[in-house]
Amino acid sequence: MTSLQFSLLPHRSVIAVGGADRVEFLQGLISNDTTKVAPGRAIWAALLTPQGRFLNDMFVVDGGDDTLLLETERERAPTLAKKLTLYKLRSKVTVEDRSAAMDVAVVFGAGADKLLPIANTLGGAIAFVDSRLAELGVRVLAPAGTASTLLQARGIAEAPLEAYDALRLGLGVPDGSRDLKVEKALLLESGFDELNGVDWKKGCYMGQELTARTKYRALVRKRLFPVSVEGALPAPGTSIHLDGQEVGELRSGSGRHALALLQTEAARGPGPLIAGGVQLIPTIPTWMRLA
C-alpha cells in the first residue's frame, strides 16, 4: 500500500437523494442507468439541458439507508440541489446538499482497488472504483474532516491535488465545468461515451435526443484531448491556432499538462498547434475512439 497516494478534492462535494422513488427519479434525468448502482459500484453521469448541453457531471453511489449520493462540483452543488428539488414534483424523494458534511478524496496508484474492502468498513466512509477508468483510482466519500486521518492511518501518503490532476490530465479525462462549458458542451465531445458516462439502452432522459443524434449521425467534429505544453501554461479559454486558423480552446491544466477542445483533424495532424505563444503537443488516449 505504500505506493498509493491520496489527494483531497476540495472542489467536489455530495448531494443526497433519498426516498422510495430515488432511482426512478434520477433515471429520468441523467445520462446513465441508475439501476446499475449497487454497494461499491458507482456510475458516472451527466445532467443535461433539454437541448442536450452539459449542466453537471456526477458520480452516483449507493449511500445506504435508501439514499443515493451524488458526488459533484462543490461550487455548483447548491444550484444542482435546487434544480433537483424543482424536478421532484410528486416523486417520493428528498434532496439534501451535504457539502458541509462530507469530504471527497481520491486514492491512486497501482493496486488502489485493493483499498475497497478496507475503506468500505471505515466509519461513515464510502469508496468505489472510478467507473471512467480504473487508472483513476478509488474515490472516497467520508465525514467532513476525517478523510485524511482515515487514509493516512492505512499508510497512504497525502499528495497535493496537482499530483492527481497530472494523472487525470495525462489520461485525457475531464473534470466538470473546468473542462466542459456549462450549457454548451456536448457529452460525446467530452468522452462520456468511451468513459462509461452514457447508457444507450436505458429509457428517455433529459437531453437524450441530441446526444443520440450526435452519436448515430457521427456529428462529432471536436474532442477533448490531453496536450503537453512546451512552455508556460496559458490560461484556460486561450484560443488554439494551426497555421493561423483557430482550431480549438485550452481547458484545465497543471504544470506542463492540460486538456484542449480541438478539431479532431487538427489533433491528428502534424501541427504545430499554438496557444498563447507556446506550442501544444496533443496525444490520443488509448481509450478514445475516433471515426
Keywords:
291 residues, alpha+beta, six-stranded antiparallel β-barrel, five-stranded mixed sheet, 7 helices, globular
Please give a quick description of this structure.
The protein has 291 residues and is α+β, with helices and mostly antiparallel strands. Helix content is 18%, strand content 33%.
The tally of helices reads: 7
Rg from Cα = 19 Å
Global outline: globular
Structural class: alpha+beta
In spatial order, strands of the major sheet run 11-14-13-12-15-16
Describe this protein's structure.
By secondary structure, the chain is α+β, with helices and mostly antiparallel strands. Helix content is 18%, strand content 33%. The protein is built from 7 helices and 16 strands. It has a 6-stranded antiparallel beta barrel. A 5-stranded mixed beta sheet has the order 8-9-7-1-10. Strands 3-4-5-2-6 form a 5-stranded antiparallel beta sheet, covered by helices on one side.
Annotate the secondary structure layout:
Blueprint: E1 5-8, E2 12-18, H1 22-27, E3 43-48, E4 54-64, E5 67-73, H2 77-87, E6 94-97, E7 102-108, H3 116-119, E8 126-129, E9 138-143, H4 147-152, E10 157-158, H5 161-171, H6 208-216, E11 222-230, E12 239-242, E13 245-254, E14 257-263, H7 264-268, E15 273-275, E16 278-282
Parallel strand pairs: 1-10
Antiparallel strand pairs: 1-7, 2-5, 2-6, 3-4, 4-5, 7-9, 8-9, 11-14, 11-16, 12-13, 12-15, 13-14, 15-16
